[in-house]
Amino acid sequence: MSTLSRREMAVITLCLAVVCLIAGLILGITYRITEPVKQEIAAKNESVLISQMLGLSSTDNRVVEVHRFASTGDTPQFGYAHDGRWLLVDENGAVVAQETIDVTTADEITAWVSARYPTMHLVGRFFIAYQADNSVAGYVTEGVQQGFKAHIRFLVALTPDFTLRGVEVLSHEEDPGLGAEITQPLFKNQFIGLSASALEKSRVEKGPMPDANMAQVIGRTFETAPAATGDGATIYGVTGATISSRSLVEGVKKSVGHLQHRLSVLSHGEQS
Amino acid sequence: MSTTSPSYGTLLWRGIFAENPVFRLALSLCPAVAVTTSLKNGLMMGLAVFAVQVLSSGTVAIFRRLIHDKVRIPVYTIVIALWVSVIDMVLAATAPDVYAQIGLYIKLIVAFAIIISRLEVFASKFPLVPSLADGAGMGIGFLFAMVLTGALRETIGNGTIWGIPLINTKPLLLFILPAGGFFMIGLLMAAMNAIDLARGNKLSSGGGCHG
Questions:
Q1: Most exposed among A98, A152, A191, A210, judged by the fewest C-beta atoms under 10 Å?
Q2: A30 touching B, CB under 8 A?
Q3: Can you tell me the distance from the alpha carbon of B149 to that of B184, in angstroms, rounded to the nearest whole number?
């Protein structure tokens, strides 16, 4: 008999529903147990990566995480939790309020902000590295950009005078062998040594990179990068992955631009 | 086909040689080729597949009378996907550096022909312990194939073993590439057949359950 009786259909539906419920339960429990561990590992890797990107060797350096909050609502406001201080500004950067914060971890800060400003939520963060004498050693900002498939999360490291020290991709879902090649030195090392203004004017060209440039790019470090010129640089995209390449470059440009603005807001706030 | 299962020893041994998933049944060759570029990757992948196979076989064997015949394939797929996700999360939390290497391939275990074929052919028809033994045998067989292929490919293609350099050059780089993977598996298949013939056994005509 090829048609199913009502009873049989009900039994089949029930069978599938029960299987899915139990599977979901097991998955949920495993997630609850493993996710905090994964987050811890990610955070530890991140702080190691940031030190590496900034070239910090001595332990005298202090890396401070700045959390940025934004409010939804009629009057947009932005808040910065920086080094034990809270700065609230309006959309023009004018200071609205300042306070001291006595908590240090990311979760505690978020809870502190939510308690006082229910409409504000965490929208981003960046890092400022200080040397022993409290002068700035460098900046690292986190950015997100829509790639070919899903979002690309990355870190951009900059010197105090806004020359790029490097770009590292934290997570992506691009195709292996194509878009995923943006994580390889041959592509991402092209960012090293660019000044912020050169980055602004740079454009992505379809690959492949001329053979003559390849060795220099692959082995490039901040010390060996060619001197930043005033004109925009030509960044050679990954062959067959122009969209992913362009996405990362756009993302880096936006992050650097945002960082400059936010740092100026922060320093105005601290002076007033 | 008989309804009494073979002895546990037979079940375990069968998966390693007589019905080795890679060398005899020729199942899941694509990931076998993709991941065996080094001994360590092959070992880790083999262990992950072993875990998924045993867990899936056990789960289906326990509930085999409750799974409705008409939806058995979706249910098998859900069971396999469940255990793959669990193994994926556990591996990411406990061995992050290994996970960085093979994390991409762990998710592909869902589509492995070996696992779903064992569920259909064995675990859905036999009780828990024989099914676990069958799953373990197939898992060990796959692990054995991955480790052997990975070790040979890494040694011949890269000159290293477990990352430790043995000789200074890469002798035959072809063996690290996918084409070389297929060559290596083909050569190992031929070697196993030769050993079988030498021991006086006739070559089996194909895979499947021999009861």
A1: A210
A2: yes
A3: 7
| CA dihedral (B86, B89, B91, B94) positive or negative | negative
Please identify among residues 40-59 of chain B the ones whose CB lies closer than 8 Å to any CB of chain A: none
Phi, psi values for residue A125, rounded to 5°: -155, 155
Distance CA A209, CA A232 (A): 16
Min Cα–Cα distance to chain A from B88, Å: 10
Residue showing tokens 């991140």: A46
**Strand partners of residue A99:** A86
Q: Across chain A, what does the average pLDDT equal?
A: 86
Please tell me which residue of chain B has the smallest CA distance to A29. Answer: B86
- Give the separation between CA A231 and CA A248, rounded to whole angstroms: 20
A106 membership: H or E segment, kind and range: helix A106-116
| Chain B contact present for A39, CB below 8 A | no
Answer whether residue A23 shows pLDDT above 90: yes
Q: What is the H or E stretch that residue A90 is in? A: strand A85-90
Smallest Cβ–Cβ distance between A16 and the set B74, B89, B96 belongs to B74
Q: How far apart are alpha carbons B188 and B29 in whole angstroms?
A: 13
Interface with chain A: mutation pick from B35, B67, B70, highest number of A CBs within 10 Å: B70
Name the residue of chain B whose CA is nearest to A20's CA. B78
Is the ipTM reported for this complex over the cut 0.95? no
Contacts with B199 (C-beta within 8 Å, 6 or more apart), sequence order: none
Q: What's the rounded Cα separation, in Å, for the pair B60 and B62?
A: 5
Q: In the beta sheet, which residues pair with residue A141?
A: A126, A156
The verdict on a CB contact (< 8 Å) between B68 and A38 is no
Q: Express each pLDDT in B129-170 by its tens digit.
A: 999 999 999 999 999 999 999 999 888 887 888 877 777 776
In chain B, residues with a C-beta closer than 8 Å to the C-beta of A11 are 68
By the 10 Å C-beta count (0-12 exposed, 13-18 middle, 19+ buried), B165 is classed as exposed
Tell me the two tokens of residue A230. 């005033």
CA dist A231 → A211, A228, B28 (Å): 22, 9, 53
User: Can you tell me the distance from the alpha carbon of B115 to that of B141, in angstroms, rounded to the nearest whole number?
Assistant: 12
Shortest CA gap B92–chain A (Å) = 7
Q: Are A142 and A158 in contact (CB under 8 A)?
A: no
